Amino acid sequence: MSNVAVIMPAAGASRRFHDKNYKKPFAPLAGRAVWLHTAEKFLNRADVKQVIVVIADEDMEEFQRKFGANLAILGVEVCRGGDERADSVEKALAKVKPDCDLVAVHDAARPCLADKWIDAVFEAAAKDGAAILAVPETATLKRVAQGKITETVSRESLWQAQTPQVFRREWLMEAYTARAGKAATDDAALVELAGHPVTIVEGSPLNLKITTRDDLKLAEQILKILPKPKLDGFANPFAGDDMWR
Predict the structure, then answer these.
(1) How many domains does the chain have?
(2) What CATH number is attached to the domain comprising 131?
(3) Phi, psi (5° rounding) for residue 69?
(4) Which residue, 67, 126, 142, 226, is the most exposed by fewest CB within 10 angstroms?
(5) What is the domain extent for residue 80?
(6) Which residues contact 166 (CB under 8 A, 6 or more apart)?
(7) How far apart, in whole angstroms, are the C-alpha atoms of residue 125 and residue 47?
(8) Is residue 64 part of a domain?
(9) DSSP structural state of residue 50
(10) Chain-centre distance of CA 199, in angstroms?
(11) What residues correspond to the site Positions MEP for the nucleophilic attack (predicted)?
(12) Per the domain annotation, does 244 fall within a domain?
């Protein structure tokens, strides 16, 4: 069994969330902050040896004040983020324990995970070196310029990337060393640029990334139908608490 470190970026600006009180990873969802639901999916696993949440400088003081007890009891580490998502992941990567074989990067605002999806992508990464969850594209895609359709794009062989994205530690470190400030929409793109193949593991549309406030309502319903996480000796002492009150 591989040892896995999980990096959870939560340092974004949440511009599309449109809430004056919360950024999306910290918004209440079924009585707890979104990021706590997400972290719990990994904290109960025997193969996960480290969980790091990445927080923007501007949020750090308030985050520590409201979630300090959670962090201490759950053993979650905190890292200060950077200007871009890739900068944040790179900073967290420097904190990964040397005995972790794999590093999983998972959006803190993506709380609707099932154990079987995590199992599958972890197993594929352990076997192939790099793997991500993704779902086949089913929509009709249009290329647009100046408000007009210029092309209907074939969806054949197109997949929507999700997280977790899981990599051999040395592959991900190599990819970030070679990044040299390049922009990247996800970590798999950097690993691809470094010359490593990335395996696709079919996920589910239920693996929702919260982007708008309406997504919170949908996520709450998804959490009700997902199988409960396996509890490998772990129980969340804050399971019923709304830490934002």
Answers:
(1) 1
(2) 3.90.550.10
(3) -65, -40
(4) 142
(5) 4-225
(6) 4, 102, 103, 104, 105, 121, 122, 124, 125, 130, 131, 132
(7) 13
(8) yes
(9) E
(10) 17
(11) 155, 209
(12) no
